[in-house]
Amino acid sequence: MTRAIERREVALVDLLDRVLAGGVVIAGEITLSIADIDLVRISLRALIASVRMENDEGWEGDRDDG
Predict the structure, then answer these.
(1) Residue 36 within any structural domain of the chain
(2) Considering the domain boundaries, does residue 45 fall inside one?
(3) Model pLDDT, residue 35
(4) Euclidean distance between CA atoms 40 and 34, whole angstroms
(5) How many domains does the chain have?
(6) How far apart are CA 4 and CA 1, in angstroms?
(7) In which domain, by residue range, is 28 found?
(8) Which of these, 5, 10, 19, 26, is most buried using a 10 Å CB contact count?
């Protein structure tokens, strides 16, 4: 008995909306070495998430000019 797998097409906008709603962490490491001697090691970590503005005034409305 075989099952038909339902294929769902997801638009790129919908995929980005789902990822940004929950957030995603990207981590990586790069090592530059010569003759098995590590010269440079770079560790990278990034958090990608959406920022929700609570008011439409933005930062300009937060300033106290006087």
Answers:
(1) yes
(2) yes
(3) 92
(4) 10
(5) 1
(6) 10
(7) 24-49
(8) 19
pTM of the predicted model as reported, rounded to 2 decimal places: 0.41
Strands (E), the chain: 24-34, 37-48
Cβ atoms of 52 and 22 closer than 8 Å: no
Between the alpha carbon of residue 56 and those of residues 52, 61, 62, 63, the distances in Å are: 10, 9, 11, 14
Query: Average pLDDT by consecutive 10-residue portion of the chain (66 residues)?
Result: 69 83 88 92 88 60 56
pLDDT of residue 1: 54
- Asked if residue 42 is part of any domain, the answer here is yes
Task: Tell me how far apart the alpha carbons of residues 63 and 65 are, in angstroms, rounded to a whole number.
Answer: 6
Quote the pLDDT of residue 57.
Answer: 59
Q: Residue with structure tokens 């609570």? A: 54
